[in-house]
Design goal:
Blueprint: H1 7-18, E1 24-27, H2 34-43, E2 48-53, H3 56-66, E3 76-80, E4 95-101, H4 116-129, E5 130-140, H5 145-159, E6 166-172, E7 182-188
Helix pairs in contact: 4-5
């Protein structure tokens, strides 16, 4: 795997350096389950993954991608709900890491996307659920109208996070054509 080339490669390389066996992580936008499967492999049998998506088709795809012999792993909790409601499912300071891969479900209806309002609510809740030293990874696809709005709102919000409590880094491929996705990494101090 290349380290660069696209933001997903960078995202996965960073996940590998932070997430270890036994950790508790959140995939706030499970989509087709690729990130959830990747997280399960990193946390091993002693860790735990919460995977959310507001589309039933995404939860079904994630369940299929992550199943072993037709059974969902016991250390995976699938939640069909908006990530804006994640606080109903998680306690404060339980997460070692969280990932958001925003936009639409690949292969699904491109008019059904994450929205700025629900994503901002989810980011607020996730920050409270992160342990000290926990990391949140947010990938934002700006090539569609809702993505551009999400980017603007997230950019404003994340710039305003207090430096005393969080470090925020942005990864942006500045020499790629079109509108490549942006990634933020937020570390809770």
């Amino acid at each position: 795997m290349k380290t660069f080339g696209n933001v997903v490669n960078v995202f996965r390389a960073l996940l590998k350096t932070h997430i270890t066996e036994g950790m508790t992580v959140l995939d706030a936008t499970s989509g087709n389950g690729y990130d959830t499967r990747f997280l399960l492999d990193l946390i091993g049998k002693s860790g735990y993954v919460f995977a959310m998506d507001f589309q039933e088709a995404a939860i079904k795809a994630t369940a299929e991608r992550c199943s072993c012999n037709g059974h969902t792993p016991s250390n995976l909790k699938l939640i069909c709900d908006s990530h804006a409601h994640l606080k109903q499912y998680l306690d404060s300071e339980v997460l070692d890491a969280a990932v958001f891969n925003l936009g639409y479900l690949p292969g699904g209806d491109k008019t059904i996307t994450t929205k700025a309002e629900s994503t901002l609510a989810a980011i607020d809740q996730t920050l409270k659920c992160l342990k000290r030293g926990g990391l949140m990874y947010v990938l934002c696809y700006i090539g569609h109208p809702n993505g551009e709005e999400e980017y603007q709102c997230l950019s404003t919000k994340l710039r305003l996070l207090p430096q005393s409590a969080f470090d925020v880094m942005m990864v942006d491929f500045i020499n790629q054509s079109g509108k490549p996705p942006i990634m933020w990494v937020i570390e809770k101090k």
